[in-house]
Amino acid sequence: MTATAVEVITQIAERTNAHDLEGLAALFHEDYQSEQPFHPARGFGGRAQMKANWGALLTGIPDMRAEISASVQDGDVVWSECHWWGTTEQGEPFDMRGITQFTVRDGLIVSGRLFVELVEQGGADINDAVEASSGHRPQLED
């Protein structure tokens, strides 16, 4: 029996948490296509590159964990809210969150669009961020 698309995506977190690189790679089609719309140069194709990427992450973040807090399926597309965290080999915190959109066919992930970012530690508040984007600071009405 083939797993549902949501079950396949749930296995990403399970196999990441088990640090099962072979099992993780087995979820992806050989010709998997990945894009990151916020970072177009990070797009790539192929399970081999996906496996190399995750191998580096699991090595460099030896206690890496993953959680999928919610998923919604529409046909063969699954949107999920994801969180990955851990501590790098250098002792630095790793914390990434975002939304993934994976297409699953015949039990394999064939494509992904990742809308993910490292969580900013500190940084600008909303007023500073709006001002940096628009050149105008928000003014609250009395």
Automatic annotation (TrEMBL):
Signal peptide: none
SnoaL-like domain location: 12-111
InterPro entries: NTF2-like_dom_sf, SnoaL-like
One Pfam family, short name: SnoaL_2
Protein name: SnoaL-like domain-containing protein
Organism from which the protein derives: Knoellia sinensis KCTC 19936
Taxonomic path: Bacteria, Bacillati, Actinomycetota, Actinomycetes, Micrococcales
